[in-house]
Amino acid sequence: MRNSQVDLPYLPDDLWLNCLARVSRLCYPILSLVSKRFRSLVASLELYEIRTLLGNIENCLYLSLGFSSEQSDARWFTLCRRPTQNPNSNFKSRWFASCFRPHSILTNHTMVSVPIHNLTSSTESTRIAIGSNIHMIGVLGNGAVSSRILFMDCRSHTLHKTPSMQTAQKNPVIRVLDGKIYVVEGCNDPDYSKFMECFDPETQTWEHVPSPSAEIRGRYVSTSLVLDGKLYLFGDKNLVYKPKENKWDVVGVEIPLRWNPTDFAGAVVDNVIYSYGRRSVVWYDSEKRRWRYLKGLAKLPKLPKLPNQGLFVRLVGYSGKIVVLWEKDVRGTDPKKKVIWCAEIALERRNEREVYGKIEWCDVVLTVTKSCSLLHFMTVTV
Question: 116-255 — its CATH code?
Fold first, then answer.
């Protein structure tokens, strides 16, 4: 049957949903530009229920950027594919038809702004992704930290609330471990019983976690890391919580000496720590207790020169790979602008001492003002 015999715009919604469920989620931001109807379809929970039944689950990248010194001016972006555009076609057809062709033509990538519905007046100080949701601890208008966690459903891009924590934490550090959210008190509090709480999204309940003894607990916690089913906390003292044993201990030799996750962009893939420093991606050999370079990247000319400081770089695990995102000034054309680069790198462990990286794609995904700052970069599953 020829396309001219089918009036595509007037197909029933259930047929469109079954078609869209088979399309890569990376194309949804493009398809939402076709019409209001498509914008509604790609944001419907029914579409994602069909995707789940089909087993069409994907990892997607989300980035938050700060456009002023205030967190309230942060905006969310998500990565999508940018189809090859045919200048001889009208606007709708060239964007619409490309999404249903083989992925070989979808070679370019871009970041598109995410409109968040029912946004509240509180700002978010800390964010973490679990499943299809990005959880955020809010900061109220008076500067106090909220005892409630908000989460953005990345299917519909709507905000929701969890039950309140038993205690509002100061300068909270938040991590996901075994499908649960752990919130740690970042500042010293004489009441050790309030040191850490755990939230179970399945039961929607909070509970306190037994605190470390006064002998090993430090004055503050600056950041954290999840590795091999354990929660590591870094501050003036470095601790590890082992949930299977429900016990605390001091950090041993499994964590790099003289390393703090706040100093570099870091990620964990298949229980290996990857980090960024000195314009290179490195991984940690826990047996020999030394950093090793990720090989195979230096000779690739399409990878632009990376920044010297990790402050301008973000690194995340992504479907068994790593994605590096960094900012670079635009020279000559517009001194008030900068571009954000992104590269997806496949990993290959060839032996105990060598890990090779292969760049699968590398693109400028966004152009922003120079005053814009990188905040959070994370992977969600939808």
Answer: 2.120.10.80
